[in-house]
Amino acid sequence: MPVSRTFLLPALLAATLGGCAVGDAMKKDVPSAYEAFDSANTYSRSFDHSPSQACEAARRALLSQGFVVGRAETDVVEARKYFQQSESHEQVEFRAVCMPQTRGDQQTLVFVNAVQDRYALRKSNTNASLGVSALGSLSLPIGSSDDSLVKVASETLQDPNFYKRFFSVLERFLPEQIERPTKPAAATQPQPLLFPVLQYAQPAPAAELPVEKEAEPPRPAPL
User: Fold this and answer.
1) What is the rounded radius of gyration, in angstroms, for the C-alpha atoms of the chain?
2) Is the dihedral of CA 180, 184, 185, 186 positive or negative?
3) 8 A C-beta contact, residue 130 and residue 138
4) pLDDT digits 0-9 by tens, 20-32
5) Is the dihedral of CA 7, 10, 16, 17 positive or negative?
6) How far apart are CA 108 and CA 98, in angstroms?
């Protein structure tokens, strides 16, 4: 028995330390927050239409899905939608930004982002106070509970299918007629001179002198 107990204690100690080491390694491998910055176009799409047409289509797409639009401009659309479960409340804030395309044949680049906030119902107990003229104010155990929503989580939605479905609805509301930006007229500029020409002041014209008439010769007297 003493021999077996001698071998058993180190084995248990090694197993315990090994389990702790594995648990610590698993905790280190799972980060709490990270950003991949990959090249996927989950949050953006390019369209042939103008930025104002794309944002108007985004506004109509959000309205068709039950969102409440709080801001709608020619380049930005913001909307919100509420969800209620048993004891939790969720809301999704959606934002779409329409910007001119910097390269390529298409005009507009639409960036989208959705943030989901989660609220939980919390109860707070309050005691009732009773005022007595002789004794003053007394705090009685008879109280009331007030329910209030408290934000417990906030997360950016990263599901590619969620944004893919939104862009599919947006394309349905794009108009058939595409607005094209008007090209600015080319300004006529004078051709540069190869050799500079000095400009001299022109002399003022001289005043014209009156012309004197020649005197006629005397006529002979008649005979």
Assistant:
1) 44
2) negative
3) yes
4) 544 554 445 555 6
5) negative
6) 6
User: Which residue is associated with the tokens 């799972």?
Assistant: 30
- For range 36-58, the mean pLDDT: 91
Residue 21, phi then psi, degrees to nearest 5: -65, -40
Delimit the domains of the chain by residue range.
Answer: 39-119+151-172
Q: How far is CA 162 from CA 11, 114, 142, 166, 169, in A?
A: 51, 9, 49, 7, 11
Q: Supply 134's token pair.
A: 């002789």
Question: What's the CA gap between 34 and 49, in Å, rounded?
Answer: 34
Alpha-carbon distances, residue 16 vs 9, 13, 21, 23, 24 (angstroms)? 11, 5, 9, 11, 12
Write down the residue that tokens 């005979």 correspond to: 223
d(CA 30, CA 5): 38
pTM for the predicted model, two decimal places: 0.60
- Residue 66 identity: G
Locate all alpha helices (DSSP H) within 41-159, ordered by sequence: 51-64
Residue type, 177: Q
Fold of 39-119+151-172: TATA-Binding Protein (3.30.310)
Task: Supply the DSSP symbol for 100.
Answer: E
Give Cα 34 distance to the centre of its chain.
21
Per-residue model confidence as pLDDT tens digits over 31-41: 566 777 777 78
CA–CA distance, 32 with 21 (Å, rounded to integer) = 19
Give the chain's end-to-end CA distance (angstroms, integer).
191
CA distance 175 to 158: 29
